[in-house]
Amino acid sequence: MARMSRRQYQERQEQTAQKQTRQTNPNSVPRLDTDGASRSDQKVRLNFWQIFADRPYVTVIMISLALFCILAKWWIGLAIIIILTIAGIFVIGRSHHPNRVLSLEFKLKASRKLSMIKALQLLGSNIMFLAAYMRQIVSVDFSSAGATDSLTVIQNMLSNQGTFGQQGSYFLNLFNQLTGGSLWGIYRYATNSSQMMNSTAGTMIILWIFLLMIAPAFCVLSQFFREPYSRHVMTVASLISTISFALTPTLMNRWVISYAVENQMSQAAAENAVQVGGMVYPAIISAIFVFILAIYREIKKDEF
């Protein structure tokens, strides 16, 4: 008998061991999974919130765009956003998770929980910032407040410069109408604000409006800072936002009366010039909500 190599000997031993195992365990032959087909036909639940939890910032962008459309009263854009959201949920649920049924569940993992909290803070911050930036918190009618519009001054100067000046004044008026009265909006707002700041009460009103935009802006920007600075800045900025938005109705009422006295105006005229918008109360709720989440993150130190 020829001498076997080590490899052939190992193969012979493995075959012998397999034969012995089959003889001792005759029932160990693998059988077909007859329940596989029935289990594959059963539909597993898909967490409805998982679609949003996996894409928190996309969700916040969609909600912020919807809020922008509501503040701008652009209902067609709002309808487009709602249709796109429904279509996105349908596509994700069908293509990425076939054979699953959408369900409402609120169980989130630790990483998803932190992402969801950050996304909710970003949403509340966007609500505050957009409401303040679009003058839905405090709106000022500078013409009623006694300020002279710089565009009107330029149009009057051009009207006195002959035929070409009158044509230039006409085109400026036309462009202003096409842009919804916001031609040179930033420059006109700055010049009108500087005229209103000639009085103490007017200065406080303008600075307070500036604060209402700056504090939520830091809440938004803090999302892009490094930890733990992001968490700390969010806490401080949300606290300032909560205090400033909560005090806005009371302080504006007091400053409007002072502005009327300083500029020798009637109180009714001053109230028409400076008005507190209806979005102040949703902004207060959003500020409190963001601040509570910031305190919760500080207590947990983002360890969920």
From TrEMBL:
Which keywords accompany this UniProt record?
Membrane, Transmembrane, Transmembrane helix
The reply on keyword Transmembrane helix is yes
Give the stretches traversing the membrane. 48-68, 74-93, 114-134, 201-221, 233-252, 272-296
Segments for region (Disordered): 1-38
Q: Where is the composition biased (Polar residues)?
A: 15-28
Q: Does the keyword Transmembrane helix apply?
A: yes
**What name does UniProt use for this protein?**
Cytochrome C5
The species this protein was found in:
Lactobacillus delbrueckii subsp. lactis
